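re the bet — no i am not wrong, look at it urself. input seq straight from the record:
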Amino acid sequence: VHYPWSRKVLSYGYYYLVKMLFNIQVTDTQAGIKIFKKNVLKKILPRLVEQKFAGDLEIIVAARQLGYTRIFEAPIKLDYTFSSITNAATMRAIIIIFFDTCAIFYRTYIARYYNKK
């Protein structure tokens, strides 16, 4: 994937933020390709709150909080060229994902939302 320099900085920044907040070693939590066992989804899906950009992260965090620690990633190949991040819609999305990530942090460590039955 050809990323502009600004997008690389944001991607790495978000990776380190997620790693610091949740101790998740997944390089790209926002990649839309995920595979789950049916019994895992039955336990995770009812707990999910996020409906915008950080939903993928919430699935991973909720799974870990419920004891599912076997989380793996595999490389994918994309043939796509990303545009610059300067437009207003993209900047708005960046702000939203930051606040959504903070909300997941709150639900995980302060409210203990994902641990409740």
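see?? Residues 67 and 115 are 9 Å apart (CA to CA). told u. also The chain has a mean pLDDT of 84. so pay up
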